[in-house]
Here is the input.
Amino acid sequence: MNVNLNSISLQQRKFSGTNSIGGIHLPDFNDKYVFSKKKSNTSNAEYKKQIAEQAYEDFKNGQFQNKSEGFNKLMKKYTSEVSPDRKGIITSGLKAVSRNKQSGLKPIDLLATILEGKVKYQRMPSGQTDYIEFYDKNGEMVATYSNNGWTMYTTNAEAARQTEMCMIYNEAWGNAKRGIPLTDSGSVNSDSLQNAFDVQA
Here is the structure.
């Protein structure tokens, strides 16, 4: 019942209409699959309630996981709590690459330490294509740029967070399917749960 969100975020995508640095268009940081660090004051209990409510709403509308716009928005918010500062890393990384290009050097393998991480830059042998890797402060690759397209890489913390949300969501969606009512706290009503088991027995 799990949808692998990582495979979606790993696809190479091209963004247009965004600002550019050094002739390279930035990713759309508002895109539902581009996560960047954003802390909220939402507690884990409140998130769990929101996830369960979203699952019940999606079941009612015949939707599941990333087929639901509400799920995607909640996944972005939930994951961004533990995301690296992709926006800062990519922006400062592109500025470092752009400065290096303007200095007239031939960057074959530039490694620069940037805000919250590192950037590795190579110009491919043809001289036409840039290949850039962006790393967070933990040394995990968070994005690459090549052939005019961006690929976002899910960090271990993000993958764990996404799995956690899917588990909460799947359980709630399954409960909705079984007709078990949701309580105000986002958990199922234990009396109704027992009645559901009694009916099935």
User: Anything to note?
Assistant: The beta strands are 20-21, 24-25, 110-114, 117-123, 130-136, 141-146, 149-152.
